[in-house]
Amino acid sequence: MKSLAELQAIREKMKDKVVLREDSGDIRVVVGMATCGIAAGARPVLNTFVEEVNNHGLASKVTVSQTGCIGICQFEPVVEVYEAGKEKVTYVRMTAEKAKEVVEKHLKSGKVIAEYTITNDRLIGG
User: Fold this and answer.
1) What number of H helices and E strands is found in the chain?
2) pLDDT band at 126 (very low <50, low <70, confident <90, very high)
């Protein structure tokens, strides 16, 4: 068993990796991590969002978390971005490289990458 001081030291060391699970900011990034998402490659997408948000100094503004099935398995990996006062943005068929681009362009600069998103029209076969 580790002492309380040792556990606190471990917590501090790992804080930059998990702080994003706490509700820390204005933007929430939610990665679908059900078995369908994981099988499609969601784990590296989640890891990339966590790393890139930290690398760009956005941890006070952006929260990264995971959820279960989002319900559109054929479009996995799926990432939803929630911003106060704005409509939710759903990114589909994400990769680690696309995640880096989303952090740079959307989360940092406020520009949605439309070609990576899905709309209601696409969901219902429009």
Assistant:
1) 5, 4
2) very low
Residue 8: phi and psi, rounded to 5, are -65, -35
Burial (CB count within 10 angstroms: exposed 0-12, middle 13-18, buried 19+), residue 48:
buried
CA atoms within 13 A on the CB side of 60: 1
Total-model pTM: 0.77
Length in residues, the chain: 126
Q: Residue 49 has which token pair?
A: 């969002």
Q: Measure CA of the first residue to CA of the last residue in the chain; give whole Å.
A: 58
pLDDT digits (tens, 9 = 90+) for 54-91: 999 999 899 999 999 998 999 999 999 999 889 999 99
Angle of the 42-55 helix axis to the 4-18 helix axis, nearest 10: 100
